[in-house]
Design a protein that fits this description.
With about 190 residues, the protein is of the alpha+beta class. Among the domains are: about 55 residues, SH3 type barrels (Roll), CATH 2.30.30; about 50 residues. The protein is built from 4 helices and 5 strands, in the order ααβββββαα. A hairpin with a 6-residue loop joins β3 and β4. α3 crosses α4.
């Protein structure tokens, strides 16, 4: 992992349409006669809207930096997205950006497959897809909260101490139970 990413000149690119047929032939002869290897590449011109985001994606790859959820996600990344009005998050993959729209492949909210679509990025929220460890921690947190709720709702759930002390006792007990492997059993 490099500490700082610096752009460097690695390629010389000619736009074929900018060369006369004579100059293009000369360039091809120079390449062939000098055994200069040809690289298959995608070129993003400086005037294109994708230029800076392409450099950002290369920098993240070179430095090992991951997208942290701020700003728009890079093209090709799997993310979760939502609008405030949705009330849920959908997994999707950023395909490309236009001047005013983002194009994504998304899971259907009905759970019946994937679709490709475009949307205006204004008002949409993105976040990284949770890791398995983050999902496990979310499940653990939800399980602990459910156990605490059951203790609090039980008629003998009080201990003759102040509310904050009682809550601390409940948290300690359910954390110990969780770590011992106790989970809510689903009735058959």
């Amino acid at each position: 992992m490099s500490e700082k990413f610096e752009r460097e000149e690695r390629y010389i690119v000619f736009k074929v349409k900018d060369l006369s047929e004579h100059k293009l032939g000369w360039v091809r002869d120079v390449i062939r006669l000098n055994d200069i290897p040809i690289v298959d590449a995608v070129v993003v011109e400086a005037g294109w809207p994708e230029y800076e985001s392409t450099w950002s994606a290369i920098e993240r790859r070179v430095t090992g930096e991951q997208w942290n959820g701020e700003g728009l996600p890079p093209v090709g990344l799997e993310v979760e997205c939502t609008f405030d009005s949705w009330g849920y998050w959908l997994k999707g993959k950023v395909l490309c950006y236009g001047e005013k729209m983002i194009f994504m492949e998304q899971e259907s909210s009905k759970g019946d497959g994937k679709f490709e679509g475009s949307m205006n990025p204004d008002g949409i929220k993105f976040r990284p897809v949770p890791t398995p460890e983050q999902i496990a921690e979310q499940e653990r947190h939800a399980g602990l909260n459910e156990m605490i709720r059951h203790i609090k709702d039980h008629p003998r759930g009080t201990h003759g101490v102040g509310h904050l002390q009682e809550l601390k006792i409940h948290e300690d007990v359910v954390r110990d139970l969780w770590e011992a492997g106790y989970r809510k059993q689903v009735a058959p």
